[in-house]
Specification:
Blueprint (H helix, E strand, L loop, with lengths): L1 H25 L3 H11 L2 H15 L1 H4 L39 H12 L18 H37 L1 H16 L2 H11 L1 E2 L2 E2 L1 H12 L1 H14 L3 H8 L4 H9 L4 H24 L11 H8 L8 H28 L8
Antiparallel strand pairs: 1-2
Helix pairs in contact: 3-6, 3-15, 6-7, 6-9, 6-10, 6-13, 6-15, 8-9, 9-13, 10-13, 11-12, 13-14, 13-15, 14-15
């Protein structure tokens, strides 16, 4: 009876607290509940990432025109923002102008320059008359492809080295960690520029070379984080029990240790994607990335820096795309870390 008397007030307090929380949530206004939902779930980052993936996969269908098509008559053409120009939508007929006179040629040239459909040059044209919006859309495909290859190799190599270093320890751990330290101390940008110069093609390195360069910096974070998890997991009771039962080291790693690092690998990968996209854009901006005429965001920013005063849109929109994607991936990675790590969960 005494024990029941001690337990009953505790239950009453828990019920009272739960009821108070329920009433608190119920009293929230619609705007407050909407803000709470947006803060709890990364809707905006997810939306931006979905748009990025969709644009990259279906670029030929999303893009309003050919990103490689040049038209010097429209070089540095300002954005139309999709406004209708019915008087300019018809291609001029040469027979309507007197092409034997300077005035007639000038009038035909102006009419031809203004004859474009509504969906063309929505975000303007670059210094070669190429559609900026189309190049931004195709740039998403380039960033996704290069980053996917580099990230996949980084996950495989980094996770493997991290598991080996954390599980076996000793001199193996010491040697691998010192290799990582030396690798992180290397000036990557300078090395990338030197390597790109060796494989230079038409204003940039070959695409396979760019993937290799980005893969060189993709694996190091996985080694450190996975090693830290393995150092904790290898001392757990279920791992020790499997070892006593006679399980081999390979079986212990594959069946008991490695699965415990999946959440960490997922979080590091989500945070690393944005950094790799930024790295690829940096290399392209410096002329060591994707070669012309492939539409890469960093290369587009570099193309427009000489015309920043008269044609700001050439650099602004690819740079803004880089900003949105990197920020959304960082926010999503932070949210994923908070959800998967019980020590960092922030539900309210």
């Amino acid at each position: 009876m005494a024990q029941q008397a001690d337990i009953q007030p505790t239950n009453t307090i828990e019920e009272t607290t739960s009821d108070a929380e329920t009433r608190s949530v119920a009293k929230r206004s619609a705007g407050s509940q909407t803000f709470y939902f947006i803060r709890r779930w990364p809707l905006v980052p997810l939306f931006i990432m979905v748009v990025l993936v969709f644009s990259g996969i279906f670029a030929p269908f999303v893009s309003p025109s050919d990103p490689y098509q040049q038209s010097l008559g429209f070089r540095n053409f300002p954005p139309t923002w999709g406004q209708a120009n019915p008087e300019f939508n018809q291609v001029p007929v040469a027979s309507d102008f007197d092409l034997e006179t300077t005035k007639g040629k000038s009038a035909f040239s102006r009419a031809k320059k203004n004859s474009f459909p509504r969906g063309k040059y929505i975000l303007g044209a670059d210094n070669l008359g190429r559609d900026v919006l189309s190049r931004v859309v195709y740039g998403a495909r380039v960033s996704l492809k290069v980053t996917a290859y580099a990230l996949t190799s980084g996950i495989i190599i980094g996770s493997l080295l991290g598991v080996v270093a954390g599980y076996f320890g000793g001199w193996t751990d010491e040697i691998l960690m010192r290799i990582v330290d030396v690798w992180l101390a290397l000036p990557f940008i300078l090395i990338a520029l030197v390597i790109a110069q060796l494989f230079l093609t038409q204003g940039g390195a070959a695409e396979s070379v760019v993937v290799l360069l980005i893969a060189l910096v993709a694996w190091t974070p996985f080694v450190r984080q996975v090693r830290a998890d393995v150092l904790t997991i290898r001392g757990q009771d279920y791992v020790m029990a499997a070892k006593i039962a006679g399980a081999s080291s390979i079986r212990l790693i594959l069946k008991h240790v490695l699965p415990g690092t999946f959440s960490t690998i997922l979080v590091v990968a989500s945070l690393r994607v944005g950094q790799l996209i930024l790295t690829e854009s940096t290399l392209s901006f410096l002329g060591a990335g994707i070669p012309d005429p492939i539409p890469a965001w960093g290369k587009s920013v570099s193309d427009g820096r000489q015309f920043i005063e008269e044609a700001w849109w050439i650099s602004f929109f690819p740079g803004f795309a880089i900003f949105l994607v990197v920020m959304s991936l960082n926010f999503f990675g932070d949210w994923l870390r908070d959800r998967l790590d019980p020590r960092l969960r922030q539900l309210d």
